[in-house]
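Journal club prep, notes for RB
We'll compare a predicted complex against what the paper describes. Inputs for the adenosine monophosphate case:
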Amino acid sequence: MDNRHLEPGVYPRDEGLQGVGVGPHPQPNVDLLKAKIRHIPDFPKPGILFYDITTLLRDREGFKQVVEGLAGPYINKLVDLVVGIESRGFILGGAVADRLGAGFSPVRKQGKLPSRTIRETYDLEYGIDCLEIHDDAVQRGERVLIVDDVIATGGTAKATAALVRTLGGEVVGMAFLIELLALNGRAKLEGEDVYTVLQY
Ligand code: AMP
């Protein structure tokens, strides 16, 4: 059945899925999603196995399941704002925000945002970097979901949560497409509601 023209959150009963918000959210097909992710050894530098999701996102069914998988657990959590982390967090976060009926704000690398920003430095799997957010990107008391493609060491997400809280936002969750278990990013995010769709 062609589902492309269904309303967001409305799923055909004959697929065994229930409408988002009225029951359990659709579970993504983990094997299907994993099969569509391309692994690039030694990118961007030797020793890093890069999880390239462009091959998954270009696939209509894959992209749909990714968005449903990330948004599903937060459908009833009254999320006001999704904060997506540069750059793949923009693609995923924008779609998730639309699905949740929330707004979207970007967190970017240093020097990219045009207006007044606040900043936070953080450790990355491959280096040290700095993240910024516009100082009016989150309103005091807003319920915020942080979205990114990969959680590796957790440093990027931790810095993002700090930026959101500095502006007075309430972090209700962090949703990632991919969790790299060996790097134990969750240890750095103790106390946070961390949700991941795929684990490696
Ligand atoms: P971390 O701060 O260590 O959790 O790193 C997370 C950020 O780095 C995310 O924005 C990811 O896009 C990126 N990243 C880290 N490791 C990888 C990897 N192996 N493949 C793809 N992206 C990665």
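Talking point for the session: Residues 173 and 193 are 5 Å apart (CA to CA).
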